[in-house]
Amino acid sequence: EPKPKAAFGSVGRRIPYRILHVINQDGESLGNMHRAEALKLMDQHDLKLVLLRENADPPVYRLMTGQQIHEEQLRRAEKKKASPKPGVVQKELSFSSAIAKNDLETKTKQIAQWIEKKYHVKVTIRQAK
């Protein structure tokens, strides 16, 4: 049973599947081929094999240069950074612009406590009538 890939990158020569669907560095499909044939192609063109889709039948691998792999890793890191992290608590506080001084101080202390706990805080100020 092959282990799931944690990071995007070259798989080297450790390919657990006999038959692969290979895509060249330009994104064109080369079709299904045997693992040995794919490795020979990889060596001839001085490229690296990267697993794209493991759950497909057969699994999809792409021939890439080191530069292409690096750029794709950067792209995936940016995408991951942009998405909200699971487990992050977001607190929301809403109050009127005509809030009394004591109430404002109390809510400010509450916001400070939430920030210390690393919560994301969203403050909404409504305009008084």
Automatic annotation (TrEMBL):
Highest taxon listed in the record's lineage: Eukaryota
GO biological process: mitochondrial translational initiation; ribosome disassembly
SUPFAM superfamilies (alphabetical): Translation initiation factor IF3, C-terminal domain, Translation initiation factor IF3, N-terminal domain
Gene3D superfamilies: Translation initiation factor 3 (IF-3), C-terminal domain (3.30.110.10), Translation initiation factor 3 (IF-3), N-terminal domain (3.10.20.80)
Entries under InterPro entries matching the protein: T_IF-3_C_sf, T_IF-3_N_sf, Translation_initiation_fac_3, Translation_initiation_fac_3_N
Domain Translation initiation factor 3 N-terminal: 11-78
Parts of the chain that traverse the membrane: none
One GO CC term on file: mitochondrion
Any one GO MF annotation of this record: ribosome binding
Record keywords, A-Z: Initiation factor, Protein biosynthesis
Family as reported in the entry's similarity comment: Belongs to the IF-3 family.
PANTHER family xrefs: TRANSLATION INITIATION FACTOR IF-3 (PTHR10938), TRANSLATION INITIATION FACTOR IF-3, MITOCHONDRIAL (PTHR10938:SF0)
The protein's name: IF3M factor
Organism per entry: Smutsornis africanus (Double-banded courser)
